[in-house]
Known about the structure:
- By secondary structure, the protein is α/β, with parallel strands linked by helices.
- Strand 11, helix 7 (240-250) and strand 12 (254-258) form a beta-alpha-beta unit.
- The protein folds into two domains: 3-79 and 372-453, Aspartate Aminotransferase, domain 1 (Alpha-Beta Complex), CATH 3.90.1150.10; 94-341, 3-Layer(aba) Sandwich (Aspartate Aminotransferase, domain 2), CATH 3.40.640.
- Helices cover 41% and strands 16% of the residues.
- It is globular, with a radius of gyration of 22 Å.
- The longest helix is centred in the C-terminal third of the chain and has 24 residues, at 344-367.
- The strands form five sheets. The protein has a seven-stranded mixed sheet, with helices on both faces.
- It has helices at 9-26, 28-38, 94-104, 115-128, 139-154, 207-214, 240-250, 269-274, 300-312, 328-341, 344-367, 393-398, 402-414, 434-453; strands at residues 3-4, 7-8, 61-65, 68-71, 76-79, 132-136, 158-162, 175-178, 181-184, 199-202, 219-224, 254-258, 280-283, 294-298, 373-377, 380-384, 417-418, 425-427.
Amino acid sequence: PSFRHGIRWDRAQALLAREVAAFVQRNPRSQSLSQRAQKHLMFGVPLHWMNDWGTPFALQVAKAQGVDITDADGHTLVDFCLGDTGAMFGHAPTVVVQAIAQQAAQGMTAMLGGEDAAVVGELFHAHFGLTHWQFAMTATDANRYVLRWLRAASGRKKLLVFNGCYHGTIEDVFVDLVDGVPTQRDSLLGQVHDLTAHTVVVEFNDLAALEAALAKGDIACVLAEPAMTNIGMVLPEPGFWEAAQTLIKKHGAALVLDETHTISCGPGGYTRAQGLQPDALVVGKPVGGGLPCAAYGFSAEWAARVVHAKRTAPPGHSGIGTTLSGNLLAMAAMRATLSELMTPAVYAPMLALSHTLAEGLRTRIAQRRLPWCVTQLGARSEFQFRTTPPRNGSEAGDALDSDLEHLIHLALLNRGVMITPFHNMMLICPSTTAAHVQQLLDTFDNVLDALCHG
Ligand code: PMP
């Protein structure tokens, strides 16, 4: 028989058939709602990514509270996906629900700020250390704006990213190393510009390649997650960021850290937890407690250059911003989230439970001698289909197997546990308890038994 990642593939296929049948049987109401939505929604869902789950049709949500999702058929699922991080502080967190209910009754958007604006600026400074902030609705937009500001402020055109990165649908980042050659990602739709003209890509943890690229003197900024999370997780090697920061500074580029996922490491992200000193920082997804919000900040030095670029530009459209960015509702949501949820006291049990989960997964993988490993980044962890943690995007990408991932996710879902549809990510929120973690581990055991023994 043939094996994939230590799994007998004929057994996996047989299990898949059983799990698909079980899902259909278990979710009649989801199936009929999903059929109804096919008529007037393209792809049958509000966003086509919602079909990226390994389910035969899209599961329909009735409500989501804390760590629980109740689906349309009335099952309660323990949610370790948490909206792929948007709900990392739990679904419908009370403090945010109250803050936005109160603000909604007093106006949602006016293209003006109020008291919350100054307070939110102070909160972001206190959390992340950077001095000057602006807001967007999504992390994608925040990254796009930072890149535009830094190109304008530096007069340099090029962006440097790490191979296998993801920073939202900002076009510029979709360049991969294919056999060492920068290549535009072929899955991009409707993209007509040559992205390789202004995007430079090197492997993560490769200081020599980083230095060689920076030495040309044309890189405006390096945009990076402090630890990669979007091609599977890749941690920086000891000393990588210290050396990289020095190189970036030496060559006059700016370092932008995208903390949208690594905010799982603590109230100031990986940056604060590890004492990094970026020139700019982006964070989106959970910063509004689930409401669409994102923020980006600059150091005082780069903020001065950015402001100068704006003040000396011809009057007219800057091409940066959207009408609802920084709206009254968003500011109220971020104020509540940063002051009440992004605190050391809220994070401490999340980090401890995430450690328990990662250790528990390791034990179960080792018991079956599967060639898999587990990586943890604060409240986020992930199992990967290789024996040792990957050192860069190429190694991490080689370990992805969407067929096997989808099978495991579907089998977990049928047993009441939900993990992220993209690779094998699991997040802990403030409402996750030790019992929930144990439930995931027991279910994981159960699914591995079905996979390994048929
Ligand atoms: N940055 C990072 C690191 C991300 O992981 C993502 C989304 N996965 C984004 C930015 C984009 O977030 P959004 O889709 O909310 O714009």
